[in-house]
Amino acid sequence: MITALQMYAQHERGQLATWTQADYAQNHVEDPTQEEALDALQQRLRAEPLPEPAAEQRSALLAGNFDGINCIAVLTALMEALYISKKPKLRARADLGSRQATPAPSPTKFDCERAQHILQTENVPVTCEKIKNIQLGVAFSNDLWSGSWDDIGATLEGPAGKAILHVATQPERGSHTWAKVDMQASFKKDEIEVTGLDTITLNAAGIFNPPWRLGGNGQNDQWQVQDIQIRADCADPGFEAHDNKLVGLNAWYGHPGGWFTQKLATKTVATFRVVPGDWGFSPPCAMIKELAYAFDLSDKFYGGTNDALSFTIGEGKEIPLGASVSRGFHTDGKINLKEIFGKDEVDIRDLKELKIFDNYSGGNGDQWAYQGMTFTATCAKVSKKMAMKKYQSVNAWVEHKADTQAAWTGPIIASDWLEVA
After folding, report:
1. CA angle, 319 as apex, 316 and 321 as ends, to 5°?
2. Whose CB has fewer CB within 10 Å in the chain, the N or C terminal residue?
3. Average pLDDT over residues 367-395
4. In the chain, what are the domains?
């Protein structure tokens, strides 16, 4: 299966070329049974596309339950989506380079794990495939007796390695702390794959000879966790990742106790799974397929203008807003990306500046009351929408400048785009 993926990648994208002996030799296919299997696979693909994995198959694969699933068929269907369909940018997620030839027989578990990995990362933005500056947040409930006499710790672990974290010593109820991961000490690198973490644990340990406090001395106890969160910076500047699945947990945990030094031993008290589907991203994507704007003048007296107004965003062409407009003027519209930017999809990282122009040709160059401007966008690869409302309430008096100069300018960065429902 992996050999088939490699051969698809080597031919022109979207073309189901006939595999030759040269292709087989290049990809180290030496066993006749492998050739027969690859020939049969190609015939199936030419006959008709395989159906997408059913919802129950997707759920089982994501959960790591491979029993009863034809992983070769599922991986073949995903291969079509990655290499032949409209998702070419996901091709790297097949991670072919580390496997040059398919052994005979191909291990079923490997096919299942590869299909699982592709499904796990299909909605992860390219900008956030790797994360850094990871932090674990733990909030203790404000309910009575929700704090602890113990020392509370945690781990973040997975294929990338293991981070051992100190959360709090004798935390008070209602307290909240963020424990920062030492990336080099934990993972030997500054960035890890977003799939590199799959487990969170909480632990507790008694404190030797603590100061006497009302309610007990050296006693293990129960404590209530309200929220657990993970946050990180994406490798690409301006993008952030977060896992808020355990917000609102409100669960009690505690050290099991024991005799003498057993009370002081570090004990794991809770374990939670982390899967890529739990992660959220801000902004949720980099590439957009739709972009719309809304522009407003204030309702202040004399807030209108006789001039002609227009704007640009990023390196796009100038877009007219209106001429001889009254105070309280509003206009909105959808931007034709192909016409304005010359392409069907635009990267928000290229939309670095908003410029508003005042052309007083036919007007008198008078001041006008700029209230604000907002943008909404639809992601190209995931079913997400976002808005840029940084300049929603500028409320400034603006007037014509030199013909080549913008009357008003505002910078835009990726983190200005926020997900909306």
Report:
1. 150
2. C
3. 96
4. 2-122 (no CATH), 128-282 (2.60.60.20), 287-420 (2.60.60.20)
| Separation CA 402–CA 357 (nearest Å) | 10
Which of 48-52, 109-113, 295-299, 398-402 is most confident?
A: 295-299
ω into 105 cis (within 30 of 0):
yes
For the chain, what's the residue count?
421
Beta carbons within 10 angstroms of residue 10's beta carbon: 12
3-state per-residue secondary structure call for 120-189: HHCCCCHHHCEEEEEEEEEEECCCCCCCCCCEEEEEEEECCEEEEEEEEECCCCCCEEEEECCHHHHHCC
- Please answer whether residues 161 and 190 qualify as being in contact, where contact means their C-beta atoms are separated by less than 8 angstroms: no
Tokens 């300049």, located at residue: 391
Closest CA to 202 of 130, 277, 137, 158: 137
Q: Give the pairing type, strands 346-347 and 287-297.
A: antiparallel
Tokens describing residue 111: 């096919």
In this structure, what are the phi and psi dihedrals at residue 230, rounded to the nearest 5 degrees? Answer: -120, 140
Of 405 and 365, which is predicted with more confidence? 405
First to last CA, the chain: 39
By CB neighbour count within 10 A (0-12 exposed, 13-18 middle, 19+ buried), where does 377 fall?
buried
Alpha-carbon Rg of the chain, whole angstroms? 29
For the record, the structure tokens of 367 come out as 């001041």
Q: Which residue has the higher pLDDT, 391 or 112?
A: 391
Tens-digit pLDDT profile for residues 269-318? 999 999 888 899 999 999 999 999 999 999 999 999 999 999 999 999 99
CA distance 95 to 73: 18
Q: pLDDT category, 109, cuts 50, 70, 90?
A: confident
